[in-house]
Design goal:
alpha+beta; 5-stranded antiparallel sheet; disordered C terminus; HIT family, subunit A; 191 residues; disordered N terminus
């Protein structure tokens, strides 16, 4: 059997454990931000929203494209503050993030035609958390037949859309669901 080579270069740094820092330095870091945390960087740098994959934000939370997605449309929903446990979340932040999970499932369903979702939260390194200090939910869109022979035979997942194109589609849909916001930085609040 002949095999063609499929490339997914955006996953290589993650697979090799050598993920490079994004070259976007915030103009001002949020109070109590962890400077080595990509989510804190995203929460602190609305001026670099697209480069950092931020598709939405509020004073309490943000939604970021996963740079190493399991499927097209894989996003992360996180508090803007560097918090590591559910007990650290105030009731206000927890409710806001849960509402964002619901809203973003609807947006992903509309934009990508997702038929279902896996939603997960890994707390702590032993649970598989890649960023154990800043908790975040994964929303992974799913479709009938989306698990095929490629992961089992070639160890490869095929994503039909680039992250940049996906960012454009999702921010446009987000603006439709929040007409008062024209870009991710319009909802940001420095803390």
């Amino acid at each position: 059997m002949s095999h063609e080579t499929l490339w997914a270069p955006w996953r290589l740094g993650y697979v090799q454990g050598s993920v490079s820092e994004l070259p976007c330095e915030p103009l001002a870091w949020r109070t109590h931000a962890c400077h080595s945390c990509f989510l804190c960087r995203a929460a602190s740098a609305p001026e670099h929203a697209q480069a950092l994959g931020v598709v939405d934000s509020s004073p309490l939370g943000l939604v970021v494209l996963n740079r190493f997605p399991y499927s097209n449309g894989h996003v992360l929903v996180a508090p803007v503050d560097h918090l590591s446990t559910l007990e650290d979340l105030s009731d206000e932040v927890l409710l806001d993030l849960q509402k964002e999970l619901v809203r973003w499932c609807a947006i992903l369903k509309k934009v990508l035609g997702a038929e279902g979702f896996n939603i997960g939260l890994n707390l702590g390194t032993v649970s598989g958390a890649g960023v154990p200090g800043h908790l975040h939910w994964h929303i992974v869109p799913r479709w009938s037949g989306d698990v095929n022979f490629m992961p089992s035979i070639a160890g490869t997942r095929v994503l039909p859309q680039s992250l940049a194109t996906l960012w454009e589609s999702l921010t446009e849909a987000r603006c439709e669901s929040h007409p008062s916001s024209k870009n991710p930085s319009s909802l940001w609040a420095k803390g």
